[in-house]
Amino acid sequence: MDQAYEHRPDDVDAMAPSRLRVPDIVRVATTGMQARKARAALSVLGIAIGIASLVGVLGLSESSKSDLIDQLDALGTDLLTITPGQGFGAGDGSLPDTATQMIDRVPTVTEVATVADLPIDVYRNDLIPAEQTGALTVRATDPDLLATLNGGIAEGSFLGEAGSIYPTATLGSVAAERLGVSDLEDQPVVLVGEEWVQVVGVLEPFPLAPDLDRSVFIGHNAAVDHLLDGDDVAASSIYVRVDPQYLAATRDILPATADPENPEEVEVTRPSDVIEAQAAAESAFTSLFLGLGLVALVVGGIGIANVMVIGVIERRGEIGLRRAIGATRRHIRIQFLAESLLMGLVGGMVGVGLGCAATAAYAASQQWRVIIPPVAIGGGMLAALLIGGIAGLYPAMRASRLAPTEALRAD
Amino acid sequence: MAASAPPALELTKVSKHYGGSPPVVALDEVSVAVDPGEMVAVVGPSGSGKSTMLNMMGSLDRPTSGSVSIEGIDTTELDDDRLTALRGRRIGFVFQRFFLLAGVSATDNVANGLLYTGTPLAKRRQAATASLEQVGLGHRLEHVPSELSGGETQRVAVARALVHNPALILADEPTGNLDSRSSAAVMALFQKLNEQGRTIVIITHDPAIAESLPRQIRVLDGRVEHDSRTARTVLS
Ligand SMILES: Nc1ncnc2c1ncn2[C@@H]1O[C@H](COP(=O)(O)OP(=O)(O)OP(=O)(O)O)[C@@H](O)[C@H]1O
Ligand SMILES: [Mg+2]
């Protein structure tokens, strides 16, 4: 059992500098954290919540954005709306009569439909006071509108039978609701100006032109003949589908095409831009979560720093012993830094996991595609490590400055 | 050969002053030498400067004045990192309070004695097992400190002090927290280590233990009041 002892005072190794191998750094840090499980877990939780909310916010906004892009792809980003300008110095607020024809000649334009607002009010019946218009607009249009806007018919038909010379009404989704038309079985009629007009159809909402949902559509010719006493009416807006490849170029030439004399008075908009802008506005809400996540991160970081500072005080004996068995100041510093980095790492991993799970669960409930941007995962881990590192700086410095005798004497 | 070998430890006019009000002279120009293979008891009343002296011998602290050499190496010239390496590689420390890591097995606690030498884990554990067997704890390898008796805990600490095979072992009241049986076991262990040729300095408050060792150094008010080797009583 006795081990023969050899005195080796000339051993070259005896003056070799202290060194701590990298795998041992990891071991030392892991042991240190395991010894204080509960406290470490609590501060790790703070980091985890912070990272989870960051990853969740980024993942959800990315997933919902992709959903929006899918939606827009389905609706088409190739729809343009041409309206008379309404700004200062704009003309008489109407487009020339020739606008539709001219636009139709542009080779990159695939569909054109015209809508003209009529100066006529519409009522459910003749008992409604004149001022209660329900904010509905009577609009003259042509059958192409439905195809151009990718619109859908909820019931009946759009504008009735082609070539019908008597006016029939087709209601936008909001108009139908306000006029109390729920089905066409009783052959409902509405009062358009002085005329009773039969409702022949109800439309689905137009996602790309929600203002049209408040319309009562009348066929253009029938409207001119029967409601306007033969006076033609200028287009209020023209909807255009464009070959997506030439969208920008087409958009540029449309004002001059619609109104060669006053192109500056023509406004061309892309409805899908509006929807995108709305989606962007929603991110104001996500920035709240982002802010909360950052607060949780800071709190978690302070928690780690706190655990580490208390640890330095409680573990003076351990620090003293390590100094006695050959740990340099640097080794002590590395140990404490590694421990707080490890807490950051664990917090980051748990947080990224939670954030991904939350994103997946919510996206699934919304039937969105689950998209977690790699930058959220990478950034989340980086942020957690950074916070762990920063939180550990001061405690590590304090630990390393402790003199061995001071550390060993403490109780 | 013995004559030409440098002393294991040599303190030359070592003083240690602590600032504060009033300032404390913990050691006052102490000169003492310990030869290789000696086994020395350091005794004295509480606060007399025993631990301070042992810390100087172990290069855990630097003197305010005077010089310390360890195995012929003058420590005055060494920077903190080299001093640290010197004690880490050449000296084994045993303390009254054991300083084992809680929740870490006896083997790994002992293996930690080699942690800062850059020895790979497998080799450290191998050496730790041998060291634990040497202190008679070959059957307690995987036990954590909370599962060990006080005497066993201190023997684990001794095994840790041995794991890098130092020629010099410094122990500050190693039996201070132990009952008489455990304390006898630990002292028997030190005896054995001394017989292997190691130099051992032990601070003790136990007169019986002190008497059982070949040499006693009595410290009083920061001075060596009596040294049985020089058989000289310094009276102030
Ligand atoms: N860091 C310090 N600052 C101030 N005074 C100190 C410091 N360390 C030790 N002392 C003082 O130096 C003197 C010697 O202390 P030391 O610890 O060496 O005594 P000791 O002989 O080991 O006592 P004990 O038997 O109680 O362990 C004491 O008066 C002590 O208060
Ligand atoms: Mg003491």
What are the salient characteristics of this protein?
A: 411 residues; alpha+beta; 2 domains; 12 helices; 14% strand; B: 236 residues; alpha/beta; Rossmann fold; four-stranded antiparallel sheet; 7 helices; binds adenosine-5'-triphosphate; binds magnesium ion
Summarize the structure in words:
- The complex is a heterodimer of chains A (411) and B (236).
- Chain A is α+β, with helices and mostly antiparallel strands and 411 residues long.
- Chain A has 12 helices and 11 strands.
- Chain A has 2 domains: 186 residues, no CATH class; 193 residues, no CATH class.
- In chain A, strands 1, 2, 3, 4, 5, 6, 7, 8, 9, 10 and 11 form an 11-stranded mixed beta sheet that branches.
- The mean pLDDT of chain A is 86.
- Chain B has 236 residues and is of the alpha/beta class.
- Chain B has a single domain, classed as P-loop containing nucleotide triphosphate hydrolases (Rossmann fold, 3-Layer(aba) Sandwich), CATH 3.40.50.
- Chain B contains 7 helices and 11 strands.
- The N and C termini of chain B lie far apart (37 Å).
- The mean pLDDT of chain B is 93.
- Chains A and B meet through helix 1, helix 9, helix 10 and helix 12 of A and helix 2 and helix 4 of B.
